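Researcher: Watch the backbone:
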Amino acid sequence: MAQEGYPKNGRVILHIDMNAFYCSVHEVVQPELYRGQPIAVSGSVEQRKGIIVTSSYPARASGVKTGMLVRQAMRLCPELVLIKPNFDLYRQFSRGFRRIVYDYSPMVETMSIDECYVDITGSKQFGTPLQIAEEIQTRIREELGLPCSIGVAPNKLLAKMASDMKKPNGLFVLRLRDVPKVLWDRPCGELYGIGRKTAEKLQKLQIHTIGQLAAADEGLLRKSFGINGIALKQAANGISRSEVNPEREPNKSVGHTTTLPYNYTDRKEVFRVFLNLADQVGRRLRHQKLMASTVQITIRDPDMKTITRNVTLPVPTDHHEDLYKAACELFVRHWEPEKPIRLLGITGQNLTPKEEAAIQLDLFSYEQQPKKDKLSEIMDALRDKFGEDAVLTAGMIGDNPSAHIRNRKRRGTSLQKDPDGDSFPL
């Protein structure tokens, strides 16, 4: 980089990674209970596999890791304090840190609730790259009370690697010329984008370090990994052409999936789950101003056999009633009564922007549609302000409303982890 920190050609990218984000948020909100303590946010221990979603740094010092079973974590750290997830709270703080980042550049690519890339090549008016990174880090700490680590680099790959160098509250600059000294002695598995299986395959080729990968024969890599082999070698040399993309590719589908606490056989229970899932999918469609023309259901049995079935709707929709009705009809048509179920899901497909969707209103629906839109708007506003439990339909509550309300208060928001790797708040 040039003396002022900006290259004559090329870009300057920051990767901002919130440290132990969920736990840090709880420490800010209730410091008297959690600050400095070994804490962990965990999925419900009442589910089949209570897992650690994330843990604080004192808990990590005792060996507690993300994805670990709760009972295993408690053996390693008996004083561990478990906290149920609160996704409304996390989203609030996530919006807060991204608002700060947008003050320095519009070129922000959100990767998850707790990390983003920002291209500051055109942000010279705010100072050098290091000054901007330091100011963002300071503001996040002072305005939100949260720690974050920031990597400064000429591309996204190195920025991501740099943000992992110093945690928590770290700030690291990784120039292309520093790659041999900083990265080449590290194991291949530490290079961003290399998973366990790829690392094991590289070891079989006697390629153990990032430096060895950087110098590896291209023919050998291409033979073993195809075209990805060349990309692996380029990454090991710090080369990446991926740009910060503030306009994410439009969603091709919007779905929600949940693993059930036990194998369901009762159709009434299945329909209640579908109602909750349809409600979540409809809410996300409205939030993204999209409408779905196709509804797909996913069903998995205890033997992990999965089927999907879909139906095209007469008109596009973003209302949970339409999604729910289609899901239930598909279920009745394609699933045998009392056959056990492990997982259920609903997905809206064939999405179109709401303003472009041609709603074919007939004599019966042209008066109902605006009323349904207004009702959904009110329900969404109440939930945005007071949380997801602010509005519940009778079908969601079930046969015993008072027991449901007691249970929701007792257990808070639960986190279901899908066996395919995605976690969904329900």
Notes: The first strand starts at residue 13 and ends at 18. The two ends are 46 Å apart (CA to CA).
